[in-house]
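Lay summary. Proteins are chains of building blocks that fold into shapes, and those shapes determine what they do. In this project we predict the shape from the chain. Here is one chain we studied, written as its sequence of building blocks.
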Amino acid sequence: MITLGAHRIQYNETAAALGRRTFRVTADDRRPMPLRAREAFMVRTGNYPEGFGCYLIPEGDAAQLNARHLAVAQVPEDLTYLADGDVIRILPERRSLRVLFRRSSPNNSFLLTERCNNYCLMCSQPPRNVQDGWIADEILDALPLIDPDTSEIGFTGGEPTLLGDRFLELVQACKSYLPRTALHVLSNGRTFADATFARRLSEITHPDLMIGVPIYSDLSHIHDYVVQADGAFDETVRGVMNLKQFGVRVEIRVVLHKQTIPRLPALARFITRNLLFADHVALMGLEMMGFTKANFDDLWIDPADYQAELAAATHTLDRARMNVSIYNSQLCLMDRSIWRFAKRSISDWKQEYMPECNGCAVIDQCAGFFASAKLRYSDHIAPVRAAA
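And here is the predicted shape, written in a compact code that computers can read:
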């Protein structure tokens, strides 16, 4: 439901009677008895300590699948990475298991809905007009099981704020169950043009909340074209201003492609003059997913060909003392004067490096590529022979 797909599993009849259930994974047979009903125990040595809500056994151990009157799920080899503190959801009627949260990963994000009121040219998660309110219920079920020492989780979509009160309920739940965990929400910002909604979010007083909002041009008609929604620019800017009025931190996000690059330096000036209060600005390389493939000719530009614009925009924002970062971009293409702004931003489960990267002296500092970049990436990738 989050960043990882469903895995096919085998299960016994008792597990099928569970319906949809969410569990925290553990291999500790000394867990307190009151906690065990919400946990899935990883069976390693044939030991089935009593009280756990589900038992996970390795694929091929079919003899044990129906040997006990317990909820037993037989999981495939590609789930051998499961570890203490991970959160899973078993759907017996579909013979599937989804990994909702990985304790060892710094990149855990929950998709709240597939619905959206934008239709962005480069959307990596193309929206669908579906009734998916069950997703919020699933997340509310998972949040209490997540390690409270998790550094950050994300909410994404679709457009999360289309859930209205349910969105606010989810933010409140994060504050209640994960008070030490940062929450980063990706939103197009338009719902926050309603000042009352922005104020209600602020009144939750989440201790570490950031709303990431895209602005793609200083000219409204270009932004509206990119997001395929008339009037979106005005609503987005008003949304950003309302959020900041009520003390909610805001990140401005700019995806770099053929439609946004020509005005990128002007957009940086617009931000420094009108949105200087923004807490962070992220300049982001294009991901070759979703609508990007369908609109490839309207979006693709070799990153080597826009480095002058990227450097100019970055320096403009930096001179204004704004917190600026460059995401999803390769160091070998950048002017070294902006290397310090580049981040290793791509989620660990979809980050790759290309053959041209072999022997690079700064590969451990470089964002690398989305796995989808094999469709097309810069013709100018080359190993850096000496670190800066």
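What the prediction tells us: Residues 1-5 have pLDDT under 50 and may be disordered.
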